[in-house]
């Protein structure tokens, strides 16, 4: 009898929809505008980060531990733009998930993994800059290529194991009343975190690494101020290196700040939603998710604005000069930038 009643409850989709896509209430003009805007963001995300990947991979002068971390972070942003954002765009504009429940889980797992991977990369870059500026004598021994490889292994493996493990085990939904009915009846690829996993995701995947980054950059800029007061009394070679390290730290600090600004609202909503009986409107959550995606769009724009070498590398790529033999040894830095 209990089994029959449960089956009747599952079949009652009146509260959640009937599993088919509802009629889109947006006008054609609004949908065209949304598709155009999101397609533009996807284009910049994919090709901007691809340019960064090609630049650092191709030009020998850019083969440094810091740039290898930036390269891996650009791969993260590229994958988000190439594999995640197009499907999310269709879902957002059409108010429907057309791609099936299994692909829904795969899509969300990659989405979650890449978001956490980005913040782990930023944490690694903060550690790199900390040693470069606060402990410059130990930098070459601490931030070696093998160390960077181990950092990258952690940056990719831990978020991947967490995201795919939690999503495919459906541990995130334990105890959420009516979630099975929602999945069976909804056409929107619903993923709702319970209190335990929402808190775990926020603390372990966002708050802890963010606090670590803020602490490291606070120390970095405090030391940079001391260096600024003493910089004129240093030998020219140390003076030049300190200026370059300070500029790199400032640029990557801006990248970190943009990441926190873009992703904090989404992670905070995931934390609060189960404590508010999952009352967050779907359209708001969707908008916050896209605000997070735009971080991957902003990163190549930030690099292009603050790194003249990236603008030169991009120019050489567009002109096809990278297909010339031995061009990978080209100097991307002007005399002024090396001083």
TrEMBL record:
Keywords, alphabetical: Cell membrane, Disulfide bond, G-protein coupled receptor, Glycoprotein, Membrane, Receptor, Transducer, Transmembrane, Transmembrane helix
InterPro entries with a match to the protein in the record: GPCR_Rhodpsn (IPR000276), GPCR_Rhodpsn_7TM (IPR017452), TAAR (IPR050569), TAAR_fam (IPR009132)
Membrane topology note: Multi-pass membrane protein
Chief place where the protein resides: membrane
Boundaries of every G-protein coupled receptors family 1 profile domain copy: 48-303
Key word Cytoplasm present: no
Classification via Pfam families: 7tm_1
Transmembrane segments: 32-56, 68-88, 108-131, 151-173, 196-217, 251-270, 290-310
Keyword Glycoprotein: yes
Family annotation (PANTHER family): HISTAMINE RECEPTOR-RELATED G-PROTEIN COUPLED RECEPTOR, TRACE AMINE-ASSOCIATED RECEPTOR 2
Family recorded in the similarity comment: Belongs to the G-protein coupled receptor 1 family.
Protein name: Trace amine-associated receptor 2
Species this protein is from: Microtus ochrogaster
């Amino acid at each position: 009898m209990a089994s029959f009643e449960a089956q009747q409850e599952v079949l009652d989709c009146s509260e959640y929809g009937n599993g088919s896509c509802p009629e889109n209430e947006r006008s054609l003009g609004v949908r065209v505008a949304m598709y155009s805007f999101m397609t533009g963001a996807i284009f910049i995300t994919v090709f901007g980060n691809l340019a960064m990947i090609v630049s650092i991979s191709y030009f020998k002068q850019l083969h440094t531990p810091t740039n290898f971390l930036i390269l891996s972070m650009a791969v993260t942003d590229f994958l988000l733009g190439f594999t995640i954002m197009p499907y999310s765009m269709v879902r957002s504009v059409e108010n429907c998930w057309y791609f099936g429940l299994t692909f829904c889980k795969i899509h969300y797992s990659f989405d979650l993994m890449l978001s956490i991977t980005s913040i782990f990369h930023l944490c690694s870059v903060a550690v790199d800059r900390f040693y470069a500026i606060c402990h410059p004598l130990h930098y070459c021994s601490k931030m070696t290529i093998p160390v960077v490889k181990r950092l990258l292994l952690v940056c990719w493996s831990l978020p991947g194991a967490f995201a795919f493990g939690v999503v495919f085990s459906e541990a995130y939904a334990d105890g959420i009343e009516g979630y099975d009915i929602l999945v069976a009846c909804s056409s929107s690829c619903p993923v709702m975190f319970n209190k335990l996993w929402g808190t775990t995701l926020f603390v372990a995947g966002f708050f802890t690494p963010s606090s670590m980054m803020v602490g490291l950059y606070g120390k970095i800029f405090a030391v940079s101020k001391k260096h600024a007061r003493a910089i004129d009394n240093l030998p020219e070679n140390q003076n030049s290196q300190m200026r370059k390290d300070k500029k790199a730290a400032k640029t990557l600090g801006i990248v970190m700040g943009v990441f926190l600004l873009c992703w904090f609202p989404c992670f905070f909503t995931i934390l609060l939603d189960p404590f508010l009986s999952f009352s967050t409107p779907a359209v708001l959550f969707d908008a916050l998710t896209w605000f997070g995606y735009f971080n991957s769009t902003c990163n190549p724009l930030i690099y292009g604005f603050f790194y003249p070498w990236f603008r030169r590398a991009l120019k050489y790529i567009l002109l096809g000069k990278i297909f010339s033999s031995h061009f990978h040894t080209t100097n991307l830095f002007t005399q002024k930038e090396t001083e």
